[in-house]
Write a structure and sequence with these properties.
rod-shaped; 15% strand; 177 residues; 4-stranded antiparallel beta sheet
């Protein structure tokens, strides 16, 4: 088959080819721009991923340390709980009659309770009293008059509670018969 191509048709084909080349350049530029954006996003996401992995590793180390501390604290609480139960069992098995407690008062307010006077003397050095300090005996002055003061209490079965060992002498009430 023979086809005749006229100059006009040839000119139209050249124009179509030129338009196609222009369109290819435009599409290529758009593709290059899209590729550049994609590469930039990939680089940015990779950097964020690396930072996240680093943070995750740091958090894992911190969490591991916190878990160890938590485990140690739980073990310490368990040991203290066992000791408290042992002391409760020991106390429940004994009669409280005649038993004494020593209370460390700071400006008249209870600070610490000790099972014995010896325990009180041993511990009071931690509160600023020199070891072997001479403690003033309780007298008629109020407990608030002393910076630190030891008071002894004994169990009184009649009241089902503890009373001071050294009670101040009762003062007569004025106008009473």
């Amino acid at each position: 088959m023979i086809r005749l191509v006229t100059a006009r048709r040839l000119q139209r084909l050249e124009q179509d080819a030129e338009q196609a080349r222009i369109r290819v350049r435009e599409v290529q530029a758009q593709a290059d721009t899209a590729l550049g954006r994609h590469v930039h996003n990939v680089v940015e996401l990779t950097a964020r991923l690396e930072r996240a992995e680093t943070t995750t590793d740091e958090v894992a180390v911190l969490l591991s340390g916190a878990m160890k501390e938590l485990s140690a604290a739980q073990q310490e609480i368990l040991l203290k709980d066992i000791e408290i139960r042992r002391l409760r069992d020991e106390l429940e098995g004994e009669s409280l009659e005649g038993r004494t407690l020593t209370v460390l008062l700071h400006h008249g307010e209870p600070h610490t309770i000790y099972a014995s006077r010896e325990d009180a003397y041993a511990d009071t050095a931690t509160h600023g009293a020199p070891a072997g300090a001479r403690w003033q005996t309780c007298d008629e002055r109020p407990a608030a008059a002393f910076t630190w003061r030891l008071e002894a209490f004994t169990y009184n079965p009649a009241s089902n509670g503890f009373r001071r060992l050294l009670m101040p002498a009762p003062k007569p009430v004025e106008g009473a018969a």
